[in-house]
Amino acid sequence: GSGIVPSPFRPHVPADRRILLWTTPHSTSTHTAMLESGISPLLQVKIFENLLLSHVPETRESYGAGLLRFTQFCDRSSIGESARMPADRFLLAAFVADAVGTCSGKCIRNWLNGLRLWHIFNDAEWHGDEGWLPALKKAADKGGVSFKRPPRGPITPTHLRALRASLDLQSPLGAASWAAALTAFWGCRRLGELLIRSPGKFSTTRDTCRDTRVGVSVVDGHRVLSIHLVWTKTTTLQGGECILTAVPHVKSDLCPVWAFQNHCRINHSPPADTPLFAYRAPSGWSYLLKDSFLRSSSTVFRSASLDQVFGHSYRIGGSLELLSTGVAPEMIMKLGGWTSLCFLIYWRRLAEVIPSAISRAWKDRITEFARAHGHPSDVDALSFDDD
User: Fold this and answer.
1) How far apart (Å, rounded) are the C-alpha atoms in residues 300 and 314?
2) Mean pLDDT of the chain, nearest integer
3) Which residues cross the membrane (predicted)?
4) 20 to 30 Å CA-CA from 56: which of 205, 309, 380, 385?
């Protein structure tokens, strides 16, 4: 589904480069205007390459998909090259209307975001919020309901124990995989903030390496690690802190502090620019890739007849586990790097969490009342014979 009509305006390039390298006659006029303003071709290249760096590779690839779909629509509809940019509100309305019912409304909005960025890169006017477009976007939301993904399920302690049983924690790969899983779970972090996508896309400005700052402390008798992440989705290059706290004895087999230190012990002495969860291999250092990690763990979960999960499931599961044990939502929000309470939409199984929270509240009130009046806090120990 990626075929397009051949054109000198659209060279065969990776998806994340389409925003920059796919052009129209308008692009030519923009470059000419820059030359007339004294901006040399070399300076123009620097401008556009840095514009490209303002968005992470995943975003550029996603937006490149939107540009592809728009191009295919224009090819089918025999839209001339000059009319494709700036795209007027009628053309954009037709594009959206043609796509309604074929995918989710969120997908169509993302395609429009890609087109908008393409226009910005080419200094072209954008008309994507004019005329019928707002109403058509709502129609896309309604028409794409059947394409919406079901809610992501959470990773649970049962999932984690099944994963642990499948790993050799004394092997380099097993130690790295276990540490990554528990760091994502208890740190409520996105896998994309911890694991790299591919060796070719590894970047020390985006991917945290083993030379990052790792703080070690003890709080209320529990060991705590603070791992500095050089990049997060919400803060980008400002980075953030991934906080791992040793778990109580009853769940000591799922302790993230032990897992991370075990990984550092087995995969010791790496070069400074080695990714955080890289592991030793006979030929040198191998990268633990996000996709391969998910594939291997999904195989384990299927074999154990557990619910299938996705990358975000670690983050969801960790926040749910902490919530169910009474950690305040505000603390979970800070821990996972959410910037607002919108993270509540990730919580699942509230039918289990809410009664648990109410039960804890009742227990706390009973204990408080009993202490104030000199009674035992165990309700079963109270005598009602005198009443």
Assistant:
1) 15
2) 89
3) none
4) 309
